[in-house]
Amino acid sequence: MIEEIRLPEISENVDTGDVINVLVKVDDYIEKDQSVVELETEKAAFEVPSPFKGRVSEISVKEGDSVKVGQVILKVDTEAEKKEEKPKEAGQKPPEEEKGREEEKGKKEPSDKQQPPEKKLQEPQEEPEKRIEETEKQKDIPSEPEATKQTEKPKEKPEAGKAVPAAPSVRQLARELGIDIHKVTGTDKTGRITADDVKEYARNIIKGGTAKPAEIKAKPLPDFTKWGEIERKKITTTRKKIAATLTYTWSNVPQVTQYDQADITSLEESRKQYSNKSEKDGTKLTITSITLKVAALALKEFPKFNSSFNPENNEIIYKKYFHISVAVETDRGLLVPVIRDVDKKNIVQLSAELSDLAQKTREHKVRPEEMVGGNFTISNLGGIGGTNFAPIIYWPQVAILGIARAARQPVYKEGRIEPRLILPLSISYDHRIIDGAEGLIFLRWIVKHLENPLLLAMEEQI
Q: Rounded to two decimals, what is the model's pTM?
């Protein structure tokens, strides 16, 4: 019996993926749950397992193809195992009898396998770019709220360059707010634009998250071939998603970054002391795993940092769970897998889980569901270097903690100068719901607990 292997549902709001690699070939014998295709979506790269065992009779995709959920990837002859008792290795052919039977059947009724390869590959790929673009526009980037759309509908009534009915003071207000007055609709009986109209238009932009930079079209690039040889490469689906998410955040979230530093001399001594024991058990204690625990406790203390902001109805959504994303550098870009229920795990457990999850992410084995649901992000670039940086919030979260490289510095302490290990930290947050004082207090709380390991133990048994 010929069974079709279709692309299964991946995760919420993801219905397409790009084929990175086809792991089998026609006539290969495969087992149930054997990986057949390596796929990349906007959230992760992973392998698709076969729900059947048998001989691969047909492959419908190739490297670089874009496939949709439910689309046929390949076909498997599940009866091959019954007719082939010995040949179970990939690439072995069925007995001559079966082969002759298949040829006879093919003469009477042409199979899909006999169709030209070009025609076969074209069918599941009708306008893939168009489908991807439509999916990304509809699902990846949050759409404009209706309030904003209604405000901007009449923008063509008074065309740019034409006189608009508004007082000089109202025009001045629009200029100060960076608003094109031609796009504002007047509510006065005579159609005149008032100061309240301009303010309401501005409120709708802020409420709806519609950013002015989104209206600016990208300038065309010059012809670089005039000056030398070039190479063109399409960006991956992952990189496309990263670009879209960060552009949306940068354009729509008023982000503020504050900096501080922690004296982790005592923490590092404790880490080294316990690291030898943990490494014998196969676990490595790191600053990131320790900071995970500190961050979870901080989120409990400051719930606003463990929330999301909904501008459509001006409400803050507080989460009662503590899932933290950790930025992992891969060959396909910076990915952020999620460690769940950080508050319920000790540092040794977090170290083991973090190490395993980071490895899976780099090897493209992380599942899409392991990439979503985080409330807060930690990005540690200390292993690379740098003195500090301002990370961009990972929407729909409202804050992200940056960790740079720790370095020995001379510090004046108790009447003398001594070398101390200083760790640079930064916190970026959504200024719509978090004030500057709150951001700094949150960061100081983290600094205080990193500087005093005993405080961490007193705060909660680790």
A: 0.59
